[in-house]
Design brief:
By secondary structure, the chain is an alpha/beta fold. It contains eleven helices and ten strands. The two termini are 15 Å apart. The structure holds ligand C2E and magnesium ion (3 copies). The site of one magnesium ion has 4 residues, from loops. The site of one magnesium ion (MG) has 4 residues, from loops.
Length: 291
């Protein structure tokens, strides 16, 4: 649906499309107002070191509390913000929030707490992204090595040389680059060949089937091996069950994220100084998005 605006062209004649497009325009107008009205919020989800169970850092995940619609998931509004360019302003705000929060947590925990921020293709293509990241780090005092920028292979749809240059410049600041949703696209291996990276995040869809499906297990084992050979850190996304946790442990996966360890929640709900939950106690539930 969001794709309709994604390339700045509307498919006008398909039945139902006009209404869908109209609704997106409304949502986009609301989004512009939302930024000013303070309806956007950053939630945080822990990343766990599977060797010792400790929280190594958090991923910043954007939330929109819409006054009428309730919680609008990022899958619905981030593509709109990307298409309209609003993602530049929103993304800067998320980066500032997240880096500031990591500075606070680092002080509280007495050890470095990492922060991962999702960067959209449009943000990465922006001329000012390197200066922006550099300025936000400088203003907060957070060491660059504690910031990871997550990108998807969607960035390959843009000028690859330019994207590679931007990523290299970001890495020269000392920031880490993670490939998000690894394995889901059409060009995962092309990404690894052409663009720099430090972290590989195995997409949730592979992790989900880890319990019973031998093929998924073989694929995840191969991705972990691939990461090892390329000297990349590996993070398994979307771990929900202790069975998946156990299989990942057996495969010597170093890091994981998922509801089993912690849901995305507002910053005050997290305390990195405390040991990470083992998953034995169910984490509090996020509010369910409105239908
Ligand atoms: P992502 O970066 O791959 O984030 C992981 C998504 O998986 C998040 O969805 C998270 O809530 C969800 N998740 C984590 N653990 C589990 C689990 O155990 N089970 C299940 N079923 N889901 C789990 P969310 O927060 O809805 O975000 C969706 C996507 O929206 C993100 O995928 C990211 O691509 C995008 N996004 C979120 N925040 C931002 C942002 O600040 N900027 C940009 N550009 N994109 C963002
Ligand atoms: Mg991500
Ligand atoms: Mg992901
Ligand atoms: Mg994703």
């Amino acid at each position: 649906r969001a794709k309709a605006l994604g390339k700045n062209r509307l498919v006008r004649y398909a039945p139902g499309m006009a209404e869908a497009a109209e609704e997106e325009v409304t949502l986009l107008q609301d989004l512009t107002a939302a930024v000013r009205a303070g309806q956007l919020e950053v939630y945080y989800q822990p990343t766990i070191d599977l060797a010792d169970g400790r929280t190594t850092g958090y991923e910043a995940l954007l939330r929109w509390q819409h006054p009428q619609r309730g919680l609008v998931p990022p899958a619905e509004f981030v593509p709109l913000a990307e298409a309209s360019g609003a993602i530049l302003e929103i993304g800067r705000w998320v980066l500032e929030q997240a880096v500031g929060q990591a500075t606070v947590w680092t002080a509280e925990a007495g050890r470095p707490i990492g922060i991962a921020v999702n960067l959209s293709p449009r943000q990465l293509a922006d001329d000012d992204v390197v200066a922006l990241v550099s300025a936000v780090l400088a203003a907060s005092g957070l060491p660059a090595a504690q910031l990871t920028l997550e990108v998807t292979e969607g960035v390959l749809l843009r000028d690859v040389d330019r994207v590679a240059g931007q990523l290299r410049a970001l890495r020269e600041l000392g920031v880490r680059i993670a490939i998000d949703d690894f394995g889901t696209g059409y060009a995962s291996l092309t990404y690894l060949r052409r663009l720099p990276a430090d972290v590989l995040k195995i997409d949730r869809s592979f992790v989900q089937d880890l319990g019973g499906d031998v093929r998924s297990r073989a694929l995840v084992a191969s991705m972990i091996e691939l990461a090892r050979n390329l000297r990349l850190e590996v993070v398994a996304e979307g771990v929900e069950t202790s069975e998946q946790h156990a299989v990942l442990g057996g495969l010597a996966c170093s890091h994981a994220q998922g509801y089993l360890f912690g849901r995305p929640l507002p910053a005050p709900a997290h305390d990195p100084a405390q040991p990470a939950p083992t998953g034995a106690v169910p984490a509090p539930r996020e509010p369910v998005p409105a239908p």
